[in-house]
Amino acid sequence: MGETMVVLCPAPGEPLEHAEQVGVAVGGAESNVAGYLARLGHRAAWVSRVGDDPFGRAVVRHVATAGVRVDLVTVDPAAPTGLYVKDPGPDATAVHYYRAGSAASRLEAGVLADPRLAGARVLHLSGITPALSASCRALVEHAVTDRPLPGALVSFDVNHRARLWSADRAAPVLRDLADRSDLVFVGQDEAYALWGTADPAAVRRLLPGPQTVVVKDGAVGATALHRDAEPVFVPTPRVTVVEPVGAGDAFAAGYLAGLLRDLDPVRRLRLGHLVAAQALGSSGDNAPVPPWAWFDRLLAAPVDAWSALDLTGAQVEV
Questions:
Q1: Is 249 one of the annotated active-site residues of the chain?
Q2: Where is each Carbohydrate kinase PfkB domain found (predicted)?
């Protein structure tokens, strides 16, 4: 559940100010996760709100093309679909948002009362949504506190967006929402910027509530800290990086797919890394994924083979 927007993208590596043409794409953290889960063979639905405009129709069509249910998306005739623009640079890609007053910012708690959501196993949210408006913050608070989807695991990606709210404003809100969730994803650098935590153990101490906290440390690896078990660390394989935007969503989807398939903690983290590798090697926010046979082979690799895994330049049939 969350906002998805139209994305305007110059050619890879071309600064926005010099671009004479841009491509039109679609991107949103939560729908990215839904799209990857659908491609990995799971049933996924996206709950959101779009404007009654061409951008809104493009967004819904794009998400549906990934195999995600979109019948729970509301069309708002009085507010526009959000927009963001990528600006590639030599060291990183900057993102400029045009989403104030968007249709998705008018989401309210009632959207999770829809009977078509009954039986959902996972509700995935992110820290982007509470930054959009007071009603969106109330919706996420309702989701993690009142649990309107009985039996559903609540997954929360901290996903702090500094352009939406400062770290000082966001830190207490995101900590509270994360601590009331069941599964939390957070980047180590993000956790340090928000809460001053220096390592995964410090993040876990700050968030004692969730059953599992997954701390991602870029090219180093990811650590899953479980409430009743020892931490599990899996290093990141070497990969080709074309565009980092969307890799965190891909990681979350891979981990969730592993959880839904009842994989052990190591394989959940490995699957997160492998799906993230597909996103990193693509210029789009939602990349194709290989067949399960490819994943199965690497998920079963011995520890030493995994530690030496190099996916740079790998040609994978998708």
A1: yes
A2: 13-290
